[in-house]
Every structure is written in C-alpha cells, then in structure tokens.
C-alpha cells in the first residue's frame, strides 16, 4: 500500500537516478509524459530521458516532441526507439493509433538494449505497453513503473476488467460485457464501457486485457490525478479492493503544463488569446473535443446551431478527422454553407488550428468548457477551476465524465449520444444545456473549489507533491548514478 500522506526524504544531490520514459502514440498519452519529464528533471534531482518513436502518427505529436526537447535542453534527453518492421495490413481498417500501440508492443524486445545503453535506474512505461515492457525491464533488473494517462477510476476499471471477463466466461456468458461493478469504486454501466471492449476480438480489447492483467507486476503506478479529485478510486486501489497484490499507486497530478518558449511564427496564428483578452470575465464558452476522435458532419452542424442559439460568446476548436495530417476541409464546408461563420462573427472565434488549451482555460474570460472528457483536458480544467459540460464521445470518456459529476467539476448530460450510437444531440438541446450551466453560479463555485484542491495537492507539502517525491526516492534507492 502506498500512502500519499507519507513524507519521504527528497532526493539528495549526490545520487541522480536516471528515469527513462516510454510514451505511446497520441497526444493524450504523450502530453502527460512530457509534463512528467519536466517535473522530474526540474528540482526533483533526476536525469530524464524520453524514448521517441518517429515518425509520429500525428503532426501534433511531432511538434510537441520537438518543442519539448527544445524547451528542456539538456535536462531531458532524447532516446531514439526504432521499431521492428510491422505489417499493418494484418489489421485492415484498424485505428491508426491502435496500430502504433501494436507496433510498439511487438518491438518490446528492443527495449532491453536501449535501457542498458542508457544506464536506466527505472523505466516508466505507458499503460498501452505495460504487459510487454514489464518483463523486458525485469529481465534487465530495471524497476518498471506505469504512467496511467487516464483517471484513477479508469485505472480501477482496467485493473478489474480481466476478472470481469473471467467471471462472465465462467458463468457461461462467453465473455459478454455487461455492467462492471468495480470493487470499492462504483458500477460502470454497460453504456459507459469503452466501445471496443464489447468485441473480444478487437485489437484494442486484446491489448487492454493483457495490460490490465500485467499491472500487478509493476513496481508502482503513477496516475495524473489527485486524492481530493478521485478519493474513492484512489483509496480502493491503494487498499487492494480492486485487485489483490496491487502495486503502490502514486497520485501525482494534475501534472503541470510545460512552458514552451515563444517561437516564430507567433504561437497564436488564429488570434485566439488576443480575442479572449477582449471578452468580459467568465463570458466565453470554450469548445474542444480533443485531438483523438472526429465528430460526424451532421453532429458538427447541430453543435454549431446550438452554440449560435445559446447566445453566449464561444471559442470553438473544430476537428473532423482522426489523424490531423488528413485534415484538409475548409471550415465553411465542415459547418455547412448557411452563413453560420458570418452570423457569429465578433462574438465567436472558430478555428481548426492547434491551440494551447491550458492557456485558454487559465484565461479569465472563459466561463465553461464543453469537453469530450479526455483526461488531459479534465485535469487542465480542474487545475484552472473551470466548469465542464461533459460530452464524452469515445473510449474512457464516459468513465471520466462520471468523475466530472462526482467531483462537482461540472455537469454531464448522460442521455447525449456518443460515437457509434444512433441519433444526434440537437442544436436546441445543446443551447439549452449551455444556457442552464452558464446561468448556474453554484456550478462555477464548485469548480473553483476543485481548482483550489488541485493547487493544494501540487503545492509543496501537498498529496501529489509527496507522491512524486516518494516515487523519486524509490528510483534513487534502486540505483542512482553518481556524477
């Protein structure tokens, strides 16, 4: 059991553990690894290397890696992880990010020489690679930790899901997935289970189950959350209620954004920060559904109608493809040629460009975040104390939306459809919900309280501060390098 209340000694200046970080594909996985790298190298007494796989799946990942290494300088070193040949045709029509997970998983044996050459004191691997990276690290005598890039609730679900499948099979239900009662946490209804997991032959399901079974072999699990945000799930994991013999859990979030130096051309090509500066306090609805999944054209147009009808100012980041390199359509074509952009000009800013989301959420003019509930987005909202209107679309996002509702960070309209379900959320529904949440002062106050708790957790002496310190101490004790 790992107690976040413990107060381990901070690393000494003499012994410097070398922590190697191995992220997988997708911004949702890469961003927290970059933040962890900077946290460990900046004042925590660690040498840090990040294993990079090129080419990346998306342009956003390539830009982020380049900016990370440029900003960190010599504090965060780069390791090139060259993958073994992989025939993607074995999985026709598969999601490109799941394919990259598989390519990295099959290349796991190549990790051994990489760790040896780096002189690693510890490996922190992505959850998508856990079951294949852990045995390689163990063979090399290198402690191996997992950075779980989603919520603690999703970690509990991941750890328990293999047992749920085993129980289903033993009862003669052939592994059919129903409601999942996660011990010590709460029930995850069938409708909130990630879509792919209903198909036992799906590539992601096979990866997910293998990684869930492998978690018990890790030396510890780092989670980008904090005790006050998810008390039930964190307590259940630490006490062994979810899975017996579960490793220590280090709640180290919200991991703070990396501050990248200004680059040329200017970082604000759409002018969104300048536009936000001109808006009244807490008047803007920020809308973004993340970097991972596209929304159908019909739903995009209903969302546009709802934002317009809400009467509120809004900043909307539009995404219409799974991989950003495929994004070629013009905004007018995506949103319908009915004059929408002209009608909302002045009180809205709509862009397809990449934005620095944490800067937007920290801006005083933002009063609501309409979010798909990707975990990075929710931790950024929590850190900024900005209310969330949860509209999960894919994967773990309904489980994360439940965290929004339970923590009082915002509201979740559970009836709204997500990817693969029939029916559209109408513009009228969107408008009414936005108006209701923006008018509710209690929602804003409760979100602000979450923000205060997040700040307390990461401040010196807070629960997340000490969790990270305990992790560093274990890495140092495992074999720090002397300069």
Give short descriptive properties of this protein.
alpha/beta; Rossmann fold; 2 domains; seven-stranded parallel beta sheet; globular; disordered N terminus; membrane; EC 2.4.1.-
Provide an overview of this structure.
The chain has a 7-stranded parallel β-sheet, with helices on both faces. Strands 13-12-11-14-15-16 form a 6-stranded parallel β-sheet, sandwiched between helices. Helix 5 packs across helix 7 and helix 6 crosses helix 8. Helix 14 links the parallel strand 14 and strand 15. The relative contact order is 0.14. The chain starts with 14 loop residues before the first strand and ends with a strand. It is globular and about 60 Å long. It folds into 2 domains: 262 residues, Rossmann fold (3-Layer(aba) Sandwich); 184 residues, Rossmann fold, CATH 3.40.50.2000. It is built from 18 helices and 17 strands. It is an alpha/beta fold and 483 residues long. The N terminus is likely disordered.
